[in-house]
Amino acid sequence: MAIRIDGRELSKKVKERIKAEVEELVKSGKRAPGLAVIQIGEDPASSIYVRNKERACEQCGFVSWKKTLAEDTSQEELLALVEEFNNNPDCDGILCQLPLPEGLDENLVIETIRPDKDVDGFHPINAGKLLLGLPTLEPCTPYGIMEMLHEYGIDVAGKNAVVLGRSNIVGKPIALMLLREHATVTICHSRTKNLEQICREADILVTAMGRADMVDLKYTNPDQIIIDVSINRKDDGKVVGDVLYSEVEPKVQAITPVPGGVGPMTIAMLMQNTLNAYKRHEGISEE
Ligand code: GUN
Hints:
By secondary structure, the chain is an alpha/beta fold. It has helices at residues 7-27, 44-60, 75-86, 106-112, 124-132, 140-151, 171-180, 195-200, 245-248, 262-282; strands at 3-4, 34-40, 63-69, 93-96, 160-164, 184-188, 204-207, 225-228, 232-233, 239-240, 254-255. A hairpin with a 5-residue loop joins strand 9 and strand 10.
């Protein structure tokens, strides 16, 4: 049986650590960190994510602003709201829940958020800094994956890491973070040839394809560590990752479950990023 990499437990631990730190800061007379979460329209999945982010802010002792704008909000109105938070000295982080309704320009919104408040790590300046190996705000999902690997004592140096998926949010940044810690990284995607063979040779396999139950035993080996990033809802309503868990779990070294794996870590690291941004704004060392 594989070691279960428990994101739910670890995310609690991260949030408790943040909460304790914030309590100390507030006790010493400082303001609490602040996060603004903007949602446009009422997509049910986005509403759940936004609610979870607000709850996490409460758990960590942060100030939070939740702004829900109408589906037909104009680009100008949205950018004006972002600017308002850019200029609010009590606000350390701004997150605009994606995807946006049709007609709104995602890239323009991301580029309007001040890079030092871009707690998603999506701004081109922050993406560029990650590429160059400079300190920055890093995308929350890959940041959470690295936290899991560290916490479970998994050293990636010299290991063969295979990333399934090449998105800007997960595939590309996790590849850079694994590379930074000296893994040998291969990025695979829907056009990759010999996909099963490449995955089978991985010491660490990160799957972010968004394809339910795609990764079966043909993709794995008994010493493999699997990080399953995807959250897929099947026709019967069941939430699963990319990995055919029941078949694969007994035959690998370690694996993250879905749900309860990477998902909760993403929100915990959003809180961590907000605290990191706060410390930079307040001139507090991050150790
Ligand atoms: N929609 C799905 N995931 C994310 C995320 O990490 N950040 C934002 N802003 N929107 C999302």
